[in-house]
Amino acid sequence: MPTHRAAPNLLAHRMSICAPSCLSKEYKDGTPDWCECAITVSVPVKREGMHNMKYVLLFCGTSEQQQAWEEMTDEARVAQYAQVGRWFAEHAANIGPANQLQPPQTATTVRFQETGEPLVHDGPFIEGNEVIGGYVEITVTDLDEALRLAKTWPARGAVEIRPVMQVDQ
Amino acid sequence: MDEVHAALTAVFREEAGRLTAALVRILDDFAVAEDIVQDTLLVALEHWPREGIPERPGAWLLTVARRRALNQLSRDARYRAKLAQLEQPVPREPDDRVRLMFTCCHPALSRPAQIALTLRAVCGFTTAEIAHAFLAKEATLAQRIVRAQRKIVAAHIPYRMPSDHEMNERLREVLAVLYLMFTEGYLTSAGAVATRRDLAEDAAWLTALVAEQLASEPEPLGLLALMRLQLARSRARTTEAGELILLQDQDRTLWDRAMIREGIALIERAAALGRPGPYQVEAAIVACHAEAASWTTTDWRQILLLYDLLLLMMPTPVVQLNRAVALWQVAGPEAALAEITPLARDLDHYHLFHAIRGRLLRELSEREQARAATLRALELTQNRAEQSLLTRRLVEW
């Protein structure tokens, strides 16, 4: 029998999966006693009578806000990152892939002409003052829960919530 | 409105929301459920005026809805299992209509969509009736409804009561929808066209539903009081030709005293809950008018104090404008004019700003300026009763 350690603080509604390096099995009722694996990965599972909805939160702002961010002192930026980091930690159970994006000046857009010919140009797709600074995919039960998460986003600006197209919907 | 139509309206109001709630619960798809209800109501509208209203209208509607659902959905695997449930008699569930309203009035939907969905799903309006009430094209409105329904399903706007910490925000949204519905109805009812349904009455009915189910919330009571107190004056506010009569010129013996007493009792119930809010204060202002024997003997100081309180809760230019009318009575037209002049920047597109400014200027004998302001107000309103009142002023001044 392999040596595993029990994972601490399992939330009742979550399924615990031992890390792949330890065991490839899934345990619906939490990690078994004999498991002494220190690394466990938690994934939210479908709750009874509820839906698992995926949304992408797009973190938006103005170019002024973007510039202010770039001109921030290192200390201020560290503090800001710390806040954002706390937000991610707090909502870890619901959070999937996420990335901060480089500023829009670094963007390149391929735009297809009516003839179907791709045209490459310098700059972002969104014209004008609006900037998408990053995104995160979340899995929650419904729009209200997505809104609750978005409302606690510490970096201000604006957060656009887009449901992800799901095949079985 | 004749008797059959009054009876139809009453039945639709009572049954449509229950039917929608039952179908949303069973089918778990707001858009599909809502469409089936709309179809069902159209069938009823076709049959009932000819054949009379059935003895148990709720059961009749459910039978038709069930048949429609089976026809439309039986080939869809998602619904097959759910449809089996429709074969069972649906037990009378606890009243779910307020929950339904919270979905229809979700802040993620646009205000016009919130209003249209609430009227259709909860009140049993047909799309044509809503279009008529809002002077909108039926096709445009139908499109707006479809878009909102799709968003509810695609973005997964939940069908449930808001939790305690969301309640304030979500209730504000519902009440704003109801008040807008009411004012729209209250204004257009003075217009030339008679409608089968009275939007203002329906808005008051919905508000009563919310007030009854959220008995510990004072603001629904405040809004209901505000509506009742305004409805109490409805017989006095238009001439037989449908022209608007201002509060100061109304024949107060035509006011419905019983309804005024009811409105005031509602304010007292709300106040007893000890959490004042804007609707309660607005209702209190209207109550001051309702209790006054005439325009001149109105307790303007009290009204001014209430407006000060309202401004603390809602510091908006429109509240400032209304406060200026009270200030006019307490401190004279010059003071009031000085108060509203800085509002021009925010309210330049609001016809009542120019209408009130015109009256103040007229009072100060600035005839040319008064006429110019009145003309500007006239350009900005679509409402016929208001147009004719403003035109009369232009002729008389």
Characterization of the model:
The complex is a heterodimer of chains A (169) and B (397). By secondary structure, chain A is α+β, with helices and mostly antiparallel strands. Helices cover 20% and strands 33% of the residues of chain A. In chain B, helix 9 (164-188) runs parallel beside helix 11 (218-231), helix 10 (199-213) runs antiparallel to helix 11 and helix 18 (351-363) runs antiparallel to helix 19 (367-380). Chain B is 72% helix and 0% strand. The model of chain B is unreliable at 190-194 (pLDDT under 50). Chain B is built from 20 helices and no strands. The chains are: A alpha+beta (169), B mainly alpha (397). The A-B interface holds A 51, 53, 55, 141-144, 147, 161, 163, 169 and B 106, 108, 153-158, 162, 166.
Unreliably modeled segments of chain B:
190-194
- How do the strands line up in the largest sheet of chain A? 5-8-4-9
Count up the helices of chain B: 20
Tell me the greatest interface: A-B, 11 and 10 residues
- Span between termini of chain B: 38 Å
Provide the structure class of chain A. alpha+beta
- Compute the number of helices of chain A: 3
- Helical fraction of chain B: over 70%
Report the sheet with the most strands of chain B, covering strand number, pairing sense and barrel closure: none
**What's the Cα radius of gyration of chain B?**
23 Å
Q: Runs of chain A with pLDDT <50, length 5+? A: 1-49
For the secondary structure, the number of strands of chain B is 0
